[in-house]
Amino acid sequence: MDGKQVKHDINADWVLGHEYFQIKETSRERDADGRSIYEAIIYITFNQSTNQYDCLWLDNTSTAGLSNGIIAHAGKEPNKLALVFKFNEHFYFHTTLKYKPSQNSWTWLMTSDDNGKKETFANAIMQKVE
Questions:
Q1: What angle do CA 46, 49, 52 make, to 5 degrees?
Q2: Cβ 22 vs Cβ 43: under 8 Å
Q3: Each residue of 36-89: pLDDT tens digit?
Q4: What confidence tens digit (pLDDT) does each residue in 116-127 have?
């Protein structure tokens, strides 16, 4: 992630009457005060009127998550969630989750698109740990 090897813990569950899927992500890496370096709470829901998924991503890299108006959207595809966050007319951030049933795992690819220049930010595998 961002050029570094990292381990994050992911907890996910349906919340608010099974209307939203909540993902909590926490890095195992700690700062000098013992706090997690990265934390996020992510909400995903299916919007019936637009036939697409909507996603609100809140994390500790910014306090603008509730005020910037950026909601990611993704079309409905089997075993895939390709979220696109539009920051402005020239900058997009893509977060694509793909489920691999044969391995019972997910791939998580994050890329930026700055005026057509694409760069991978993260390429991860998520597996359930018993």
A1: 40
A2: yes
A3: 999 999 999 999 999 999 999 999 988 888 888 899 999 999 999 999 999 999
A4: 999 999 888 887
Q: Average pLDDT of 88-101?
A: 95
Residues 22, 42 contacting (CB under 8 angstroms): yes
Other C-beta atoms closer than 10 Å to the C-beta of 83 total 22
List Cα–Cα distances, 109 to 22, 89, 112, 124, in angstroms. Answer: 19, 22, 10, 6
Gap between the Cα atoms of 25 and 12, Å rounded: 9
Encoded amino acid at 9, one letter: D
pTM of the model: 0.88
Extended beta strands in the chain, E state = 8-15, 20-27, 39-47, 52-59, 72-75, 80-86, 91-100, 105-114, 117-127
Q: Is the pLDDT of residue 129 over 80?
A: no
* Tally of CA atoms within 13 A in the half-sphere of 27 that contains its CB: 16
Nearest to 39 by CA among 49, 29, 51: 29
